[in-house]
From TrEMBL, chain A:
InterPro entries registered for this protein in UniProt: BP-dep_ABC_trans_perm, MetI-like, MetI-like_sf
PANTHER family (UniProt xref): INNER MEMBRANE ABC TRANSPORTER PERMEASE PROTEIN YCJP, MALTOSE TRANSPORT SYSTEM PERMEASE-RELATED
Record has Transmembrane as a keyword: yes
Protein name as catalogued: Probable sorbitol/mannitol transport inner membrane protein
Entry's Gene Ontology cellular component terms: plasma membrane
Chief location of this protein within or outside the cell: membrane
Organism for this UniProt entry: Salipiger bermudensis (strain DSM 26914 / JCM 13377 / KCTC 12554 / HTCC2601)
Amino acid sequence: MARAVTTQRKALNTVAAWTVGLLIFFPILWTILTSFKTEATAIADPPVFLFFDWTTENYAAVMQRSDYAQFLWNSIFIAGGSTLLGLIVAIPAAWSMAFVPSPRTKDILLWMLSTKMLPAVGVLYPIYLLFIRLGLLDTKIGLTLVLMLINLPIIVWMLYTYFREIPGEILEAARMDGASLRDEILYVLTPMAVPGIASTLLLNFILAWNEAFWTLNLTAAKAAPLTAFIASYSSPEGLFYAKLSAASTMAIAPILIMGWFSQKQLVRGLTFGAVK
Amino acid sequence: MATQHARSAARLMLAPAVILLLGWMLVPLTMTLVFSFKKYLPLRGGDLGWVGFENYIRFVTSSAFWPSIWATLIIVGGVLVITIAFGIALALLLDQPMWGQGIVRILVIAPFFVMPTVSALVWKNMFMDPVNGLFAHLWQFFGAEPIQWLSQASLPSIIMIVSWQWLPFATLILLTAIQSLDSEQIEAAEMDGAPWRSRFIYIILPHLSRAITIVLLIQTIFLLGIFAEIFVTTQGSFGTRTLTYLIYQRVLESQNVGLGSAGGIYAVILANIIAIFLMRIVGKNLDA
């Protein structure tokens, strides 16, 4: 039985929830608004909210700093590359654990998760040294590899929980009909797993895009992604609010939109399936 | 049943992931362990030989150690209390019938997708700046003296920034858990005359206990390692030097790799203690 709710009560809930929601969203909204102001308006006293001369000059200015495109490309390359590489390694692993479980499967899964808990700062110097030796410091490839390894446990777990929901009988039927293992994965499993793979891809792209320990410490001028670009804006206070806002908006907009599509996967992915 | 062929194929397919993660875990960790027993100053002579447990003792007895533990505990604890308390309240609110629920959820979840460097900079400059920040304007509007947030109230400021980033995650998980609560149970209690407070304490809270534990553990793991928020705002000054940041400074700023590595091993041990609890809970879920 659905509970009867008075319209008044519903209106009250709506007002309360919208107030809290807008309050939480406000810093992002304020950043977006400020990005359309001139630098003078951005620090006006008292602050102006909506009624100012909207300008896109900050976006033009940020774009003109020729390096912005480079940072953006680095972010796309690193986040995309690490996610794709991770999927290539994780799909077979998750497949094998979901459909051919062994007594050790659970231990392997938990062990993988435990590598995720290794404090990054504890291994910063060794990685730094290895990167110098291997010529990977400040390269996109190096960072892609590190982010792939960091997110690999999450990718494997997410895929595993999705794959487990695919009925094994269908795969067996295909096998009976003489499908080879390769065909089975390519033509039977993959199409059924596409939604799960897509959400895994989405969430891991977001996590890699926002990662801000390795990206800040293993890059300099060449391979730095947007996280490092934005960090370089901690320059003189109060001078560049509008440009900082424009750069921030450009750095977060695509991820924000992707994130809104993947909120359900966020719960699933980050809790390793422990909350449904 | 899986055939022998399928089983060996499965093992082959699992191998790359296992080998990669094994390498990722063992190689750098072994190096850290080795460095931690050495006097190792890359810019002042390099590897100067074995020193036993000297680094471990020096790290713990340094005057910066206990303050860093306190800063870590206060930040992690503060963020946990705020995100869980507000997360429960917010999840209960969002679970109520209302207009535009989907949009409110999108608004609430948004901060989680903002990269840490952006949120730290936006808060630092546009909100907490003592001259041009919105808070300064707000304080002045009410005739109060603006606060120098990141120097006078550095820890609360950091807690505020980080809580803003993690509140969405806590809310989303708690909301997911609340939505799985059987509404008939609540209705039955309501009809039996149980007041709101008892319904909350005896039905809702126990139902949420698992979700709360998960939020607690996962956030703790991430919060122990927060870096960008401090790197961009205070650089560890004004009492915001956490254990992570202290180790970072020992390794990269003072270039004392031996000492930093000993600190790193402490951090690994700390993380493992927390991880064991998380594993238990997640492991239980695997059996279900």
